[in-house]
Amino acid sequence: MPTERFQFTGEGGHQLSAALELPDGEPVAYALFAHCFTCGKDTLAAKRISVALAARGIAVLRFDFTGLGSSEGEFANSTLSSNVADLVRAADHLRSTRKAPSILIGHSLGGAAILAAAGKIPEAKAVATIAAPSDPAHVTGLFKQHIDDIRAKGEVEVSLAGRPFRIRREFLDDVAEHELMKDITGLHKALLVMQSPVDDTVGIDNATRIFVAAKHPKSFVSLDHADHLLSRPADAIYAADVIAAWASRYIEAAKPAKPIDPAEPRKVVVQETRKSKFNQTIAVGPHHLVADEPIAAGGEDAGPGPYDFLLAGLGACTSMTMRLYADRKALPLDRVTVTLKHSKIYAKDCEECETHEGMLDQIERDIAIDGALDAEQRKKLMEIADKCPVHRTLTSEIRIVTRAVDK
Q1: Architecture of domain 3-247 in CATH?
Q2: Fewest C-beta atoms under 10 Å: which of 55, 113, 321, 351?
Q3: Would you call 223 helix, strand, or coil by DSSP?
Q4: Is 365 exposed, middle or buried (0-12, 13-18, 19+ CB in 10 A)?
Q5: Cα gap 12→50, rounded to integer Å
Q6: Domain spans of the chain, in order of start
Q7: Which residues of 162-171 are buried (b: 16+ CB within 10 A; e: fewer)?
Q8: Measured between alpha carbons, how far is 160 from 218 in angstroms, rounded to an integer?
Q9: Which fold has domain 306-394?
Q10: For residue 257, what pLDDT band results from cuts at 50, 70 and 90?
């Protein structure tokens, strides 16, 4: 799935670095994602959720707030209000270049910002928060030992997650003055509150206050066992799955793309997700799959491996070819089941093989044929199995043309 990177002008006149995660086909909707305090658009949670949503047809715009990541400006000059203004600017950019976001997603303090910004983005129909504080001033607890110094000196450097950040008095005043509960009670949009009961950064009582203050339609989902930053890939993917399913009730899906010429070969696009060492997304037209390696091979077993897909292709082609023949000949074939296994064997052990040195790839294909067929009909169907196009491809000379292309 493609990622479009660009800049847009924030409320303070700075260029903000953005990434638009796009599905391979026409997006069913656009979403705007607000990252957590001092994080950035490319933190694991932000990226994993965005990529997972794109795999489900939802385009997601995420960007670095002022002074973070690749965005211009000084972090010390940013406040919750400036973040809210930049979210509105981001929605404006989507509206003018693509389509305004109908889904708003915020993580941690980004959740508070997205709740505050929602009323200023009229096209937004669904708002989802992940580990959001019910009071933006909650974030000051991360550096509470420095608050007196900040108020006395006007600006102090603090360490957050091992990185230095300068916090100004204006930031403290801004979060203290922001009445988030008014924004929540006046939201008038569908709300999904997601929170882990074991989050030790933003307690679950925050989710309770947000949920109680909101008016229906509202939903709550517990992110069991997840930490505040959704560090585990499975937690971020689960959050994306829930958001996509929940939001589908409230968004107007885009019109279907124009039909593709059936004579045109369909492309298969494979791209790393960077969720783990081997995890990949596979797009085949409107279909989206996940590939990975087994745990024993260093992967997380989040999807079939490359050879699994190869065997699946041969198995599916085998079964389809036998079905076509049986239907054409009016054979009483009820069902075909193909079971395959790939392994390496010594060439010297294969008497019928042309190669007699080194190792060879071997695919074992067991075919179960159900139906009231006689012996001759079963024999013919087994012969037809070897004539499936994928079988012929694998057993003939193959030319693979590889080119380097610019993104």
Answers
A1: 3-Layer(aba) Sandwich (3.40)
A2: 351
A3: coil
A4: middle
A5: 26
A6: 3-247, 306-394
A7: eeebebbebb
A8: 33
A9: GMP Synthetase; Chain A, domain 3 (3.30.300)
A10: very low
